[in-house]
Design a protein that fits this description.
Oligomer: single chain
Order of helices and strands: HHHEHEHEHEHEEEHHHEEHEEH
Number of strands: 11
Radius of gyration: 22 Å
Distance between the termini: 62 Å
Shape: globular
Structural class: alpha/beta
Bound molecules: pyridoxal-5'-phosphate
Strand content: 5-15%
Strand order of the largest sheet: 1-7-6-5-4-2-3
């Protein structure tokens, strides 16, 4: 069975918009896209021209980084665009649904709601682990997309690849399994991308927004079966990727950029463990949830008061108390070593004042 059998029939039948840049790439004289023939003042990037819809050099470099073939990868404006395209292509409004395991990243449910698709919540267990069997029990046929976030935001837990395989097998022919690996670089674990050739109903979301320090450039990727990639490309706007963002991504992925990212990820992991140990020993801290990402979610005696007091120290953290199961919790992103020390000092000050 092809994963396309799960897609909305009207999307499969769509004749895509054919942009000038898709029809013809380069020539000496480009008179096919109503662009300005002159670059803007002080331009070095050729910004008068529309960008390549899927820049080959960036696609190739990302494919190499993630260990997939070019045709298994779609580059978009952050992972957020990949989530939105998946929901639009695979969920019929008023009919189909996505499944999520709260507490988890909010964008899956938002994209589904905008599409008019249902959201089935199958919570993580009390330790915030994902139990594949519990998720699969009585999963309705209307669910066409199952989102698994690993490491999970905001709890930080990693879903083992054995669980991913179990889900992909059980969902074959029924639903796509989408594994969001926005934080996998910090987990020092294998990516589910290595399973793609065996499970055509598997997709993996990766991003340059976290470990690669490019949140402002908005570059993310979906790794999936080439037929799924092709389908989503057909419903994507014609020129999704701004030229400066593509250039920033290529720079970040060159040899120097990769070395710098490797060093920063290593520092972040060391700092995460230092913070976790220090927080666990602090008065007012109930639980530090084990994290494989670049943040720590912490249960506190007085989360709201601590949040406000930290603002007084010039530090903002995330109040995640509204997530199911996370009442009284704050999420701390791991900063620079200096910033983390400031956070710990502020928390000590707050505990002493209490
Ligand atoms: C931050 C984050 C992303 C990244 O989104 P982008 O659109 O790529 O910036 C994706 N998934 C999760 C779970 C995140 O926390």
């Amino acid at each position: 069975m092809s994963p396309l059998d799960l897609a909305r029939p009207e999307v499969r039948a769509l004749t895509p918009y054919s942009s000038a840049r898709m029809e013809a790439g380069g020539a000496d004289i480009m008179l096919n896209a109503n662009e300005s023939p002159w670059p803007p003042a002080n331009d070095t990037q050729g910004l008068n021209r529309y960008p390549d819809p899927q820049p080959a050099a960036l696609r190739a470099r990302l494919a190499q980084l993630y260990g997939v073939r070019d045709e298994q990868l779609l580059v978009g404006r952050g992972t957020d665009e990949g989530i939105d395209l998946l929901v639009r292509a695979f969920c019929r409004p008023g009919v189909d649904a996505i499944a999520i395991s709260p507490p988890t990243f909010g964008m899956y449910a938002i994209c589904a709601s905008v599409q008019g698709a249902g959201v089935l919540s199958l919570p993580l267990d009390t330790d915030f682990n994902l139990d594949p069997d519990a998720l699969l029990v009585d999963l309705p046929q209307t669910v066409t997309l199952v989102f698994v976030c690993s490491p999970n935001n905001p709890t930080g837990g990693l879903v083992p690849l054995a669980s991913i395989e179990c889900l992909a097998t059980a969902l074959a022919g029924r639903a796509l399994l989408i594994v969001d690996e926005a934080y996998i670089e910090f987990a020092e674990a294998d990516s589910a991308a290595m399973l793609l050739d065996r499970y055509p109903n598997l997709g993996v979301l990766r991003t340059l927004s976290k470990a690669w320090a490019l949140a402002g450039a908005r570059i993310g990727a979906l790794l999936a079966d080439p037929q799924v990639i092709d389908l989503l490309h057909r419903i994507m706007p014609p020129y999704p990727l701004p030229t400066p963002s593509v250039q920033a991504a290529l720079d970040a992925l060159d040899e120097d950029g990769r070395r710098l990212t490797g060093e920063r990820v290593a520092t972040t992991v060391v700092e995460r463990e230092r913070l976790a140990d220090a927080l666990a020993a602090m008065p007012g801290v109930r639980t530090v949830y084990p994290s494989r990402a670049n943040f720590l979610t912490v249960s506190l005696d007085d989360a709201a008061g601590t949040y406000r007091a930290l603002v007084g120290y010039g530090i903002v953290v995330r109040d995640v108390g509204h997530y199911p199961g996370l009442a009284g919790c704050l999420r701390f992103s791991v900063g620079t070593p200096h910033e983390n020390t400031r956070l710990l000092e502020a928390l000590i000050g707050i505990a002493e004042a209490a």
